[in-house]
User: Fold Serine--tRNA ligase from Pyrodictium delaneyi.
Amino acid sequence: MTWSLLRYLRENPEVLRESLRKRYMDPSLVDRLRSLDEQWRKLKRMVDEVRHRHNVITRSIAKTRDPEERKKLIEEAKRLLKEREKLEEELKRVEAEREKLLLSLPNIVHESVPEGDSDEYSVPVRFWGRPRVYREFLDAFREQTEKWGFKVDYELLDWKPVGHADMLENVLKLGNTIKAAEVAGSRFYYLFDDLVWLDFALLVYAIDRLTSKGYRLVLPPYMIRHRILMGVIDMETFQDAIYKIEGEDLYLIATAEHPLAGLYYNEEVMEDELPIKLIGISPCFRKEAGAGNRDLKGIFRVHQFHKVEQYVYAKPEESWNILEELIHNAEELFQGLGLPYRVVNVASGELGAPAAKKYDLEVWMPAQGRYREMVSASNTTDWQSYRLNIRLVRRKGMVREYVHTLNSTAIASTRTITAILENFQEPDGTVVIPKVLRKYLEPFSKAPKDAIYPVKKEKTNE
RNA sequence: GCCGGGGUCGCCUAGCCUGGUAGGGCGCCGGACUGCUAAGCCGGUGGGGGUCCACCCCGCGCGGGUUCAAAUCCCGCCCCCGGCGCCA
Assistant:
């Protein structure tokens, strides 16, 4: 059983070099790894040989009755032991270095991924819906549609929609990030009343639709061990996103993807059990350490939110079709909500180490004049399963390889709420609730049903 | 948190006291036999190295230690089960 990256390293290093180049990383890593791997194998042969000689003597001692002969053999074993320990120490050192570099390798970029070092190079693959475009954003809109050869029908607005952060805080007055900043820090929030109902309704909507498609509903652990986390993410993500529980080997999950990947940690999966399709629901905790001052206002980019996540264990030959299935599932959810979006094929430089290919679903934000990421769907092929030791056992000949894993957002609550606040806003500040959510709000007497209304202005101001 | 019991190949289990190449059952894969199927029979069943044949190394929760030699003895840690305590 060989991991795809190791196989490429040994048999076809040019593929790896090319992949690293597309990610704007140093391709010489491949050459360092190759020589290290060669050195490791050579050293391993030497160590194994000494171990063998030592084992032979050790075994013969057990059979030897004559005390003189025994003594002689023990002396010989002791001598070999010294040699063995010296070599083993060297092997251990090389092995650790090799392992470290191997685990720093990002997944191989799929051939269909556009090359580029920023999201400018991500390529839209399709558009859906009829965006509402404020007059002044027309040029920007064309830049994001026609430039890519798409003719997207739009509704021209001659009034400027209020941004989601202002809607939340000032128009609807259903969120308080100022107080939350005092209590917990920036990028936290209090949500109230109708927006809380909306948050829940969105999650249940996603759960309802996906479980109907046969996905198994999972409530996973919200904290996981370091070992599992390192199987799922790369060092960069770890440092930018992950909160640690002090004094314990526990980390807050940044998405349900993490514990769902751990569900089959160290397991063998029979091929006829695949694909295993899961949806997890969980809070997500993220440091947003690399975000700087981006999206500081409102609830677009926060330290904590709720998400329904799709996660699939698949056979290698079916994983690329399943990636399409996952992004289509997400599209159906956003179509149901009536949010106009585009799907982009994310550029090689923006992929993240685990992913071989990634689609983002971006919703048009009328107050910003931009498509913004709501969903991310990745095929991580065998990158996570190698690290988590999740094997696929083929019936034919009991052959073992690694499963493929995939993940995709279904609904991330707060971000989707920002999209709703901007897209379904009326000139008077009323926010119309997507019809599809109604059945999930209906059972609750205090939940909003059709719309969320702005706080009435003070009489004196009118 | 305390006390006791336990963690062995995909699953179950023997071996641990008394150190000397981890045995059996189930499942699965393959083979021979067979009109077909099953039973029964034979072989295989983790990771790595290797001229990918032979063969060799490593693997008994994890990490150390003792020893020529550790599943076995010693120390630390993790997890599971039972009892007590605490508790939404």
